[in-house]
Amino acid sequence: MSAGMGGGSQGAQISVVVNIASDGGVEASTDSQSGAANDFAKTIGTMIEQVYEQKMRKDLGQGGRIRTAIKNG
């Protein structure tokens, strides 16, 4: 490191893409060839899918935003 440069570390940047289809299906991918990065993408995809399903059930349930919007349509 040259004088005057910051001491922050730079890690590898990996892009993770998570797509959630209208039927609730989830696809996660990464631009990395690393097995660990691919496992991370799958784990993040599963976590996002779980949160999405929880929010959807809440919004469609009694008093939920979607249900209220449909009812008041």
Quick structural gist:
This protein is of the alpha+beta class and 73 residues long. It has one domain.
Task: Describe the overall structure.
The chain has one domain. The chain is elongated and about 50 Å long. With about 70 residues, it is α+β, with helices and mostly antiparallel strands. The protein contains two helices and two strands. The chain is about 45% helix and about 15% strand.
Note the topology.
Blueprint (H helix, E strand, L loop, with lengths): L15 E5 L5 E5 L4 H26 L4 H8 L1
Catalogue the unreliable spans.
none
Radius of gyration: 20 Å
Q: Report the strand count.
A: 2
Mean model confidence by pLDDT: 81
**What is the SS-derived class?**
alpha+beta
Strand order of the largest sheet: 1-2
Our estimate of the beta-strand percent is 5-15%
Helix content: 40-55%
Whole-number tally of structural domains: 1
SSE string: EEHH
| Terminal-residue CA separation | 62 Å
What is the general shape?
A: elongated
Main sheet makeup: 2 strands, antiparallel
What's the helix count?
Answer: 2
